[in-house]
Write a structure and sequence with these properties.
The protein is α+β, with helices and mostly antiparallel strands and 324 residues long. Helices cover 31% and strands 30% of the residues. The protein is built from seven helices and 17 strands. The protein has a five-stranded antiparallel sheet with strand order 2-11-10-6-7. It has a four-stranded antiparallel sheet with strand order 1-3-5-8, with no helix packed on it. It has a three-stranded mixed sheet with strand order 4-12-9. The longest helix has 23 residues. The protein is elongated, with a radius of gyration of 30 Å.
Length: 324
């Protein structure tokens, strides 16, 4: 309990002292804090013991060694601060991911000084830390990874930047909060056959083969007719593929309706719709998406796919902080 209370007090104090989330931030003097590490406290205890011994035995060499080591510790305070002070960080653009995958947050770290910055540690909230060295007057891009469990927007959250350079006796740190988030799509279902097209014919069905033109190939799905199988590709060891057909009759236009999946719960419906959107786009088909409260018209292409996947990701009012 005391540790949890101390952590909450420290986070509240940091929120009051630090600016709100921004795209880019600089670690100014007021935002860099320094405290001794465990090694530093042990170093101080040893110095006190050495000083007591020097006083007790009136040994000048012991005095000299004690004050020499103490001066090294004091000078290391300046070097530890200078390794972190004035550092610039800037948020990059995140690539969308599916729920359950790792969200990748690109961060640009800038060193505007004529000295190197060594052993900088970047610690996201619940992700793996990254250690970076910066050359003088340079900018380096790093990637921070955070787990995702739900769809929606996954913010980076509060980022801790710290260093123990050069001797590990002191730890300087600062916290920044960048305006950066990763869009998390629903986890697609493992496999699901596409629904019949709006014209009433199955995709690539026997009737469609006589009236429609060949459009593309897609991976074989359970329920596909054997007439759709591309046997030549199978003979060339390219895997089991099914032929897709398109024609003027509108048979290649698909409508994915949330309300039609009555036997599934809400998240399972979104996973099925996500799988359909991915498969239809990969097959080169034209498709639309109908959700309670809105409909996306028929279309195709990467932009249309992104629009449909984002509609699934934010369905139900899911917003910042929900994709954790």
């Amino acid at each position: 309990m005391p540790r949890a209370l101390l952590r909450r007090w420290r986070e509240a104090w940091a929120r009051r002292r630090h600016p709100p989330p921004q795209t880019a931030q600089t670690l100014t003097r007021r935002r860099v804090y320094i405290l001794p590490t465990r090694t530093g406290w042990l170093f101080a205890v040893v110095l006190i013991a050495m000083l007591i011994g020097a006083i007790n035995y009136e040994n000048n060499l012991a005095y000299a060694l004690t004050f020499l080591l103490a001066s090294v510790g004091v000078v290391s305070i300046l070097h530890t601060y200078r390794n972190l002070g004035g550092l610039g960080v800037r948020a990059g653009r995140c690539r969308p991911v599916f729920a359950g995958d790792m969200a990748v947050f690109p961060i640009a770290v800038s060193n505007g000084d004529a000295q190197s910055r060594l052993a900088l540690e970047f610690i996201p909230g619940d992700g793996e830390p990254r250690v970076v060295d910066l050359a003088p007057r340079s900018t380096t891009w790093i990637e921070l990874h955070q787990p995702t469990l739900r769809r929606g927007r996954r913010p980076l959250g509060r980022l801790t930047i710290c260093t123990r350079f050069p001797l590990g006796l002191l730890r300087a740190w600062s916290q920044v909060q960048l305006r950066q988030h990763c869009v998390v799509y629903p986890r697609p279902e493992a496999e699901a056959a596409l629904p019949p097209p709006a014209g009433g014919r199955g995709v690539g069905s026997a009737g469609a083969q006589g009236a429609d033109d060949f459009a593309s190939l897609r991976g074989y799905q359970p329920g596909d007719s054997l007439r759709q199988v591309h046997w030549k590709a199978l003979a060339r060891e390219q895997g089991l593929l099914s032929k897709q057909y398109s024609g003027s009759g509108g048979g290649s236009e698909l409508y994915f309706d949330y309300a039609s999946l009555t036997a599934m719960d809400g998240e399972a419906r979104l996973s099925r719709l996500c799988r359909w959107v991915l498969d239809a786009e990969r097959a080169g088909l034209r498709y639309g998406l109908t959700l309670p409260g809105g409909t996306l018209p028929i279309g195709t292409g990467p932009a249309h796919q992104q629009q449909c996947l984002e509609a699934l990701a934010f369905f139900g009012g899911v917003d910042d902080g929900a994709g954790t």
